[in-house]
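Changelog-adjacent note: as of this version, every example in the card shows the full chain rather than a window. The one below runs 451 residues end to end.
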Amino acid sequence: MAPRAGPCSLQEPSLLDHSLSSSIRLLSTFTMRYLLASGLLFGLASAAAIPTNQGEGNGNGRNNSNGRQKKFNVELGPRPYYLVNDMDEGSLKTKLQSCSEGPFEVSDFVFAHRGAPLQFPEHTSESYSAARRMGAGAIECDVAFTKDKQLVCRHAQCDLHTTTDILNRTDLAAKCTTPFTPASDNGTAAKAKCCTSDITQAEYKTLCGKMDGFNPNATTVEEYLDGTPYFRTDLYSTCGTVLTHNEYIDLVNGWDLKFTPELKEPEVEMPFEGYTQEQYAQDMIDAYKAAGVDPSRVWAQSFVPDDVFYWIENEPDFGRQAVYLDDRVDTVEGYANATASLPDLAARGVQIMAPAFFALIKVDNETGTIVPSEYAVAAKALGLELVTWSFERSGWLNEGGGYYYQYVKSVINNDGDAYTVLDALVQQVGITHLFTDWPATVTYFASCFGL
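Full-length structure tokens:
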């Protein structure tokens, strides 16, 4: 999950610096040698998109051609082990070390935030498949609408210029709300703005997903698109397969996993050519009903409280698990107001609150330990469930960790402290689900503690 602007933007620091061959022989002699050296074999080998027509059963297995159940192996790669090894000595590190050989299982505690965007283009089938391989029990589609009012998976209605190759498509670039303008000598940054509502669903499906990023100093389109942040990689950013909302439902349903669709706040004036906010909210829910998905498998989300209230009032089966994404906590005043408003929200039927995880923890100055925040305490006192975001979307923790660690930076000093924070969120705050940009890290913890 990410705020509508700012905190989860591209400028956030994170943790990493900026097809398989058709022959097993070639793979072993060339590609395998290189990938083993780079430590990235896991992502490429295990995260290829898996078609929905393979007869897959639940997230732990699938049927082979003879109808027998084939075990599905959750693969985590080296990152969780790096984090555990980097932890300070103590009982938590010992516990996590004891789980090093698994078994690792699919966990509903793990919500895949945009798939696995730490290394894969977000909201693509490749990113979703990687998240599934790493044990995510639920996968997110941020829902936006196209010019012909069809629903697609994009983090924001107007992010096509940073997450796809639309600016390289001369047939579509001219349709952008703001065509590309190069940076100027007087210091004006390059700019562009391309929205899903600028093009039809059919046109959208011709795009290639890429790693989210741009170069503000670009003087050409090519330079502008070549802006992947240092903490990510272009290794898998050849041409990500963008998805419609219905295709996402088919894909995740075929894996028997769960759904976390977020209705994105429109960046165009509503109604949009007669399309109302209410119809938009209803269309998202109707897609699950049409697919026969049980409401208990769906966590519908929105930063807009009226969307949540709409689902509670008009689609109560889905409204029961509707998630209010609370970005009011981003300022001191907003945090206080958000905390004070929780009783009223509970009275209106909201059952799940989801602020960024920094808002749920703080440091006890007397003990120097991480404890639940005032917001967390108030929510739990009201019986509200807490979901939070987004793990693995921060700067190096030895430099403070940035936005998500702002309230606990005085007691963290290495990347391994991410697990210290996660432990506090689970054991003390009592969160029920965690959005993460790299599901493997959270799956390791969840399997170790039986979540």
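Structural remarks: DSSP finds 17 helices and 17 strands in the chain.
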